[in-house]
Design brief:
This protein has 335 residues and is an all-alpha fold. It contains 15 helices and no strands. α5 crosses α12, α9 packs antiparallel against α12 and α13 crosses α14. The longest helix has 33 residues. The radius of gyration is 20 Å and the shape is globular.
Length: 335
């Protein structure tokens, strides 16, 4: 009832504006709080002149880290929203259906087999791994007796995720690169540097691509027969959307490693306020996903300062109860 009331009283442009303000506030908060005692003035000087006592810390570590959180949160949230729309499955999430674990396995194999691989090469490997992981999960889910269902897909995702994670861990042990692999796949933003942001243009491209197909996604999310009746080329549209999802999930893993539940939580929260139109869901998911990830990373930095709490633990702590609620209710606000 509250969500419906918000939907009626607050027009979408105002929802978007409020969300953008939340993102700006969380961005500034994340830049000013941390082990180094910085303020708005320090951030301003670091960004626009490169001067100030904490300029090196802000420009070399904190600003890239917060930017990585913004784009990772947006990528995973939009990837989750697209998956939920295409499959009409309220439990769809890149971290639960094999995409991030597939990217992890591909990343580990690329580090082992191609010494000195560039960041672009790692991104390509993560994209291929995410696509392969997704294909395996959907193949296993569809092959089960009784056909594909939400729970069968989740069970298949859990099994395939464990298998692909074992490949990543086994590769690290056999090739003695466990430390390198764990630094990539631990699911955190601690090691983010300015060089890591080379991934950002690929995430932006994926986000723009998702926005372009949002109208088709809205129709497809209602009923496949309706989409066919309206003249949509369903197979082609699904293929494009899955490629976009794999690109977003793979880029997110290349940037910060394995993170689950972000793509599950955010689309449900957004859909409850915006309604079932993906032209509204996707941009709102991008912004709210960014806010969520920035605040989760900030919490990880502050909870046990000066030590860090892994952001993957924080997202799991929030995401697991949410997952159980979605399972119990069969989808919160899902079209």
């Amino acid at each position: 009832m509250v969500a419906v009331s918000l939907r009626r009283k607050i027009p979408f442009p105002m929802q978007l504006l409020i969300s953008a303000a939340l993102l700006a506030a969380s961005f500034v908060l994340a830049l000013t709080l941390g082990a180094a005692d910085t303020g708005i003035r320090d951030v301003w000087q670091a960004v626009f002149s490169g001067s100030g006592e904490h300029a090196a810390v802000l420009r070399g570590l904190r600003i890239p880290r917060v930017l990585a959180a913004v784009f990772t949160g947006a990528a995973l949230a939009v990837a989750g929203a697209v998956m939920q729309g295409v499959t009409r499955n309220p439990l769809a999430d890149p971290g639960l259906l094999g995409l991030t674990s597939g990217a992890n396995a591909a990343l580990a194999l690329s580090l082992a087999l191609i010494p000195g691989i560039t960041y672009t090469g790692i991104l390509a490997a993560c994209f291929i791994g995410a696509a392969a992981g997704m294909a395996i999960v959907f193949s296993v889910g569809a092959a089960s007796r009784g056909g594909m269902s939400s729970m069968r897909l989740v069970v298949a995702g859990a099994a395939v995720t464990a298998f692909l994670q074992a490949i990543a861990d086994g590769t690290g042990i056999v090739f003695r690169i466990s430390k390198d692999v764990s630094m990539w796949t631990a699911g955190g933003l601690m090691g983010t540097t300015p060089d890591s942001l080379i991934v950002v243009p690929f995430i932006v491209a994926g986000l723009i691509g998702a926005m372009f197909v949002s109208r088709q996604l809205t129709i497809l999310s209602l009923q496949e027969d309706v989409a066919v009746g309206l003249g949509q080329r369903v197979f082609l549209i699904k293929a494009v959307m899955m490629i976009i999802t794999a690109l977003l999930a793979g880029a997110a893993v290349a940037l910060v490693g394995n993170l689950a539940f972000v793509g599950l939580i955010i689309p449900h929260l957004v859909r409850a306020v915006t309604g079932a139109d993906y032209r509204m869901i996707l941009p709102m998911s991008a912004i709210i996903g960014a806010v969520f990830m920035v605040l989760a990373d900030l919490a990880g930095r502050l909870i046990n300062a000066p030590f860090e709490t892994p952001v993957v633990a924080i997202t799991a702590l929030i995401g697991l109860p949410f997952f159980l609620i979605v399972v119990r209710k069969g989808g919160i606000g899902h079209a």
